[in-house]
Every structure is written in C-alpha cells, then in structure tokens.
Specification:
The chain is α/β, with parallel strands linked by helices and 390 residues long. The protein is built from 13 helices and eleven strands. Helix 2 links the parallel strand 2 and strand 3.
Length: 390
C-alpha cells in the first residue's frame, strides 16, 4: 500500500431528523447528520480533513465548514443537482486514494418542506432564463414537464404503459412500509396512482416524489483509518460520472439517461457486472427515472424497463432486484438533492442494518454488492457508485 493507491471505505453514515421538521434550520440538520455519522464511525471530528457540501450558503461549503467547526485541507462544492453526492463521493475517493485527504465528510441538509409551509419560499417552476435555458423557458415547460416529456417518448418508442410506471410507485411504497423512518407508509395500488390529480401528463401526483425536510452525512476514509472505526467498512469499488446536456434540445435520446455512461464506467472500474449486484438505490424524483435508470445500468435491455418493473421485481421482500429499499424519494424522504440518502441506505443494507427492510439472499445471507446511482437536473448529469463489503 502506498499513498497513491489506498483503498477507500465508507465508515460512517447517518440521517438527521427527516420528514416533517418545523423547528430546525438547514445548518442544524447538517450538524445533526454530521455528528451522527461521526458517532456511527466511532471517530472524533478532528480526523476529518476533507469536506464536500453543496446547496447551502453563499460560499458553500465554506459556511458549512465554519458551522461544523471544521477547517478542511481538501474541499469540494461540485453541484450537479441530485447526482451531486455520488459525483462528490467519486472525487473524495480519488483524493483519499491519492493521499490528498484521509477522511472526507459528505453532508447535506434541507428544510424544503418547512420553508414552503412557513411561506419562506415558494415552489420553483424554473431554474432561470439565462444561458441555454433562455431558448426553452418561453415555452413554459417546468422541471416536472421535462421529465414527463421524456417518459412520454419512452412510452411511444417502447410501448411502456402508465400502469408500468405506476408499479414503480406502488413497490416503492411497499418498501417504505418496512421503514419506520419513511414519511409515507400506507399501501397504494396502481389504481390509486392512476386516479390521482394530474401534474404533468403522464405523471399524476403519486408518480412524483414527496417533499420533505431532512439531512444526511457520509464519512469516507482511507484504509488505515478503518481499523480505528467501530463499524465494518463498506468499500468503494468503482465510480462513474457523466454530464449529458442542459437544454432539452441538446439531449439526443429522451429514452437514455446519463447513467448509461456513469453506470458503465462504475461497473468497469469495480470489475463487476450488473447481474452480480444484489440491490440498487436509484434516484426517483419521478417513476420514469427508476425505470429508465434500470435500463441504463444494464439490469434489463433498452425498452424492457416497463416489463422489468412488473411482478414485484423491485420489492425488498421477494423481489429479484430490490430497488430503493427505504422507500425512495417517492415515499421515504426527498428534501431536495437526495443523492446522499442513496449512499446511506446502500451502506446500511451492506452492513445488515436494514431491519424489516433488510435485503437477504435465498439462504438468508446479507448482500455483498450494491449500487447507488443518482440523476441531476432533468437527466442532465449522473453519478454511480458501486459498493461492497468484505
């Protein structure tokens, strides 16, 4: 082992209070998640020499570092939407492997739900009208509408049905029912999804993620730090990142997302194949994201996602490939850039800390390989991380 090729593990993960949190600031949720992740690892904050944070403060992550009492010598503020955290995990892994840092904390917190309820902000319909967006904003489509257009194109080209898309929401809710921390746990049916209020055709309300408050933190460390931790390491085996487009007019194929590239890179670098993966945590702001990302990652062929998600394949209990084991953004929590929550859940599954929602093989064994893949913007970016345990 040299400082240039060190192995990197996730040694601490945690969530802050999530769901409905009316009495905390985003900074407080950052701190709560960070303290819990360090406690999970059994380490003092003095070990942290790297910080990755985005989405808060004028000088992110400088303000977050100050609030947490950290003075990092390695820092990352990459912001590419929901995939920010998988991309940051890739950067942190490279930095630790090269000896530029020993322990990097990824941390996030948001009070998106509470802010809207209190009138401190409104629901944003646009990301602005400058740069490439100026050519699309006048036509009035919202963020949700962009995802809806992509879903409709998949339906036209591959025969995907709205019932198949609804299955994603139904199975996410079934997984959430096993998660005591999930915001919504009551069962839903395909008919429930289809009969809801229309948001952007073909998406009704239950095709769309929930809005919650919450934060998360993940601590990555070099292999020599692992021996000082209270938790078993979950190793970063391979990562990939990809940027696709900003303007919808520059996206060559609405039925293929950026995970087709980031996933291929992550699997190649990890030296594993999709069929070896035991479970997947996939960004699911909308049902179509889950379906098309399953195709992009190679769990099924292009155009086969609709058939793949049928018959309970995504369920923790009895599913061939459990997906979004905590209930995902459709049912568990979605405070904004949710990618960090995917990494937390993946680590907990590999450690065997899933409780009722724990993924197990036919003989009751714990999973050995998992993947977290997140999407940012309107399929603008993607980050994929393959994780494994000893």
């Amino acid at each position: 082992m040299t400082p240039w090729n060190r192995k990197v593990a996730v040694v601490g993960v945690a969530l802050s209070d999530c769901g409905r949190v009316d009495d905390a600031t985003p900074y407080a949720l950052h701190a709560q998640a960070a303290r819990r992740a360090l406690a999970d690892a059994g380490l003092d904050r003095a070990v942290v020499d790297g910080l990755a944070s985005a989405g808060l403060g004028t000088l992110a992550p400088v303000e977050v570092a100050e609030y947490l009492g950290l003075r990092p010598t390695w820092v990352d503020s990459t912001s590419v939407g929901g995939s920010t955290w998988e991309v940051m995990a890739a950067h942190a892994t490279d930095a630790i492997a090269r000896g530029h840092a020993n322990a990097v904390l990824l941390v996030y917190g948001s009070t998106a739900r509470a802010d809207i309820k209190a009138g401190r902000r409104t629901g944003n319909l646009s990301f602005g009208s400058r740069g490439p967006l100026q050519f699309e904003v006048p036509y009035g489509h919202t963020l949700i509408a962009k995802y809806a257009m992509a879903a409709r194109r998949h339906m036209i080209e591959h025969g995907t049905t709205v019932e198949q898309l609804a299955e994603v929401a139904v199975q996410a809710r079934a997984n959430a029912a096993l998660n005591p921390q999930a915001m919504f746990r009551d069962p839903i049916t395909v008919d429930d999804v289809l009969s809801g209020p229309m948001i952007a055709d073909p998406f009704t309300k239950l095709h769309c993620c929930i809005r919650s408050d919450g934060g998360a933190a993940v601590l990555l460390a070099a292999e020599e730090v692992v021996r000082d931790c209270r938790t078993a390491p979950v190793w970063i085996l391979g990562t990939g990142e990809h940027v696709s487009h900003a303007a919808m007019s520059e996206w060559p194929d609405f039925t293929t997302g950026p995970a087709a590239v980031s996933g291929r890179l992550a699997f190649e670098r990890a030296g594993v194949r999709p069929r070896e993966i035991d479970f997947a945590e996939i960004y699911d702001a909308f049902t179509y994201m889950t379906l098309v990302t399953l195709e992009d990652l190679g769990f099924c062929g292009k155009g086969e996602g609709g058939a793949f998600v049928e018959k309970g394949r995504l369920l923790v209990r009895g599913g061939e490939l459990p997906v979004n084991t905590d209930g995902g953004g459709l049912s568990a929590q979605h405070p904004g850039m949710r990618g960090l929550f995917l990494l937390v859940e993946a680590v907990r599954q590999l450690r065997g800390e899933g409780g009722e929602r724990q993924v197990r093989g036919r003989d009751g064994e714990l999973p050995r390989l998992g993947v977290a893949s997140a999407t940012g913007g309107w399929f603008c970016s993607s980050g994929t991380v393959v994780l494994g345990r000893d």
